[in-house]
Design a protein that fits this description.
Length: 511
């Protein structure tokens, strides 16, 4: 009896699950196509390339379509069971809601495990293949589209201008073709024609201009000629063909290995290894920065002098302020007296302010200017290194976020099942009406929280764990609450029950 019931529940659940998954995937795929339509249209792409891109896109949209389909299908199933009193009959036979949901819970766990494996092993491959393909499509030059009165430079090495195009015969009038293939030669080769036609060879390798009644102007360049003027030749023709190779219009594939180092294209093991390497590198850079700042910027190393060198320095009027300060610092550290013949105030100087105050005006100006420039250089150094550390830390956060995203899909599938199934049992409405509305609203709420947590994690307002698990932590209590209410046969969404309570309160108040 129980086995047949479980089989019936599974069969009733699988149909809506597959259907809603395909519908959600199709809707999301159309959204993707609408987003990238400008980059696909007008580039002469073959259907195989577009189909490959759509296949990769569909695979990458599974993490969004799968939780939504689980929510909608479980809500539809238990809504139908409740609407047709099948759920009531099962409970009257002594079968609890938990026992009814048992095969679907097992299926949900299996789907969650598969979703994790999918995120860890399939998504990285499709991410990097779709990224490489999108890069190649963006680099693909559009098909030649010559507009009237506009110089077109889509053809590499050429500029073409057409005065008028006949809308029916496609004849071109007032044609100008500028050959710029030798670099920095300018308009050395120009072809003008009264009319012409344009077409592409069947193998799409060459573009042919068939021109009528025109002239060709060609300067005869010679590298040995150092003068600015060159002889030129003019050719008159009644009919002539200009053949141009369409190398720049061919769709080329980039080496996919160039895209493998992105965090979106790594498994968990690769993310952990890369994150650890980046953190070690950041620690070394920060230690190097601290040592550099302390030894070269804040406490510049003093030149180690003997005591007798201080006497030689006293008579050295060409020394820079930096040398003066460093040598004086050494003298103070060693508690040596300044040379004889100096003012008494220079003896046993205890701080650098005193040294500055007893210096001449010219010396004070030199020291002030040097100190100001040195402080600005140090400030710029600190600012540059701070920006670099922030960029490196942001990169490490991206790897941490990607690590947590491997698990959030699996948990989201389970949470949405424990929201949809009890919610359907409570509202007792099946079909595509109310369940679709509730599912879409809940999913939008989940999606907004997910994007908010992702943004906060990227901006370091929350940790990677807090940001990526924020949506699950918000929806998990809702799932527990709805499961409890459905188990206790609560009339949570029964309007009549609320009206009865209001009437009872009103009567009690009137008494």
């Amino acid at each position: 009896m129980i086995k047949r019931l479980h089989l019936y529940i599974l069969r009733s659940y699988m149909g809506p699950l597959v259907m809603t998954f395909l519908i959600a995937l199709f809707v999301l795929l159309m959204q993707f196509l609408w987003k990238y339509i400008d980059e696909l249209v007008g580039k002469g792409l073959e259907w195989s390339v577009i189909g490959e891109l759509m296949g990769y896109a569909a695979t990458n949209l599974v993490p969004m379509a799968l939780p939504l389909s689980i929510l909608l299908s479980s809500l539809m199933l238990f809504g139908n069971l409740g609407e047709h009193y099948e759920l009531t009959a099962m409970k009257a036979s002594g079968i609890s809601l938990q026992r009814i949901m048992q095969p679907l819970v097992v299926l949900g766990v299996v789907v969650s495990i598969m979703a994790f494996l999918f995120s860890n092993y399939v998504l990285p491959i499709t991410n990097f293949k779709m990224g490489a393909l999108l890069h190649d499509i963006r680099q693909q030059r559009p098909e030649l589209n010559i507009k009237e009165g506009i110089f077109n430079d889509d053809i590499e090495g050429y500029t073409v201008r057409v005065g008028h195009k006949h809308p029916t015969t496609k004849m071109l009038y007032d044609v100008q073709i500028y050959d710029h293939r030798p670099p920095n030669y300018g308009n050395y080769n120009v072809t003008l024609a009264d009319s012409g036609q344009i077409f592409v060879t069947s193998d799409k390798r060459f573009l042919i201009f068939k021109l009528f009644n025109g002239k060709r102007y060609n300067e005869i360049r010679d590298k040995r000629n150092k003068e600015e003027k060159f002889p030129h030749r003019v050719d008159n023709f009644e009919s002539q063909q200009v053949i141009i190779e369409m190398a720049g219009f061919k769709f080329n594939r980039t080496d996919e290995s160039l895209f493998r180092q992105t965090y979106q294209m790594m498994s968990i093991d690769q993310l952990v290894f890369t994150e650890d390497s980046l953190e070690r590198m950041l620690d070394k850079e920060f230690l190097l920065f601290a040592n550099t700042l302390s030894t070269l910027n804040m406490f510049k190393n003093a030149r180690r002098l003997d005591v007798k060198d201080t006497t030689a320095y006293a008579n050295d009027t060409t020394a820079s302020p930096a040398t003066w300060i460093e040598r004086t610092r050494y003298a103070i550290t060693r508690k040596t007296y300044m040379p004889e013949g100096q003012p008494e105030a220079l003896k046993m100087v205890n701080n650098y302010d005193s040294l500055f105050n007893i210096s001449s005006v010219d010396g004070q100006l030199r020291i002030t200017e040097w100190g100001s420039n040195f402080a600005k250089a140090t400030q710029n150094y600190i600012s540059d290194m701070n920006n670099k550390f922030e960029r490196d830390d942001k990169t490490i956060r991206k790897y941490k976020i990607a690590w947590h995203q491997k698990f959030t899909l699996s948990i989201a599938c389970l949470i949405f099942f424990f929201i949809g199934a009890p919610l359907g049992a409570i509202i007792r409405k099946g079909g595509f009406g109310l369940p679709v509305v509730i599912s879409v609203l809940l999913f939008i709420f989940y999606y907004i929280i997910s994007l908010t947590g992702l943004k906060f994690a990227r901006e370091a307002m929350l940790s990677a764990f807090e940001g990526m698990w924020l949506s699950s932590l918000v929806l998990l209590p809702l799932g527990i609450f709805l499961t409890y209410k459905a188990t206790t046969d609560s009339a949570l969404f029964n309007v009549d029950s609320y009206l009865e309570k209001i009437k009872t309160l009103v009567k009690a108040k009137n008494k």
